[in-house]
Amino acid sequence: MLDDSGLDLLFQKARTPRRWMARPVEPALLRRLYSLVSLGPTSGNCSPARFVFITASEGRERLRPALSAGNVNRVMGAPVIAIVAYDPLFFDELPRLAPNEELRSWFAADVGLAEETAFRNGTLEGAYMIMAARALGLDALPISGFDQNMVEDTFLAEDGWRANFLLCLGYGDIEQLPPRAPRLGFDEACRFL
Length: 193
Prior knowledge:
Layout: H1 4-12, H2 27-37, E1 49-54, H3 57-63, H4 72-76, E2 80-86, H5 94-97, H6 104-108, H7 111-135, E3 139-143, H8 148-156, E4 162-170, H9 186-189
Antiparallel strand pairs: 1-2, 2-4, 3-4
Helix pairs in contact: 2-7
Keywords: Oxidoreductase
Domain Nitroreductase: 15-171
GO molecular function: 3-hydroxypropionate dehydrogenase (NADP+) activity
């Protein structure tokens, strides 16, 4: 079990930044980040998430028109902008990822099941990325305010991937953040049966 310092890093004291320090994130750290994300559980080990890390100015400028106005400054200031995407044809990898199962045929025969599974498990992997980033000392800002079609056409069309959300990564300037927003209490959000 993690001690309080570990829980602080991941949850209790972790905050979502609004601004970023000008400190770069090294490519080796992004590789380490993905290696942790890839270990998170997905149903049938389907692993549908795909990630595009935007670090260069040219990529940022291609992304800018797709951002909602309220997100431009927060996103463009991040050292890394990850497009958290998923591969609708993830099942083509299942003979390698789950070799003792006959899962590929299930998804290949049912587009609705494949889409639902890819979106759900790709979202899980995006959440793993947030936790892994925090565990590695990075801050994370998830963003859903963007034009999905524009992001897919600009960055993902070649592979046929679908955009889920954006995840800004880096070292946040958290000194002037307002107090943490309220959360629902246990009795409001949970029940026993």
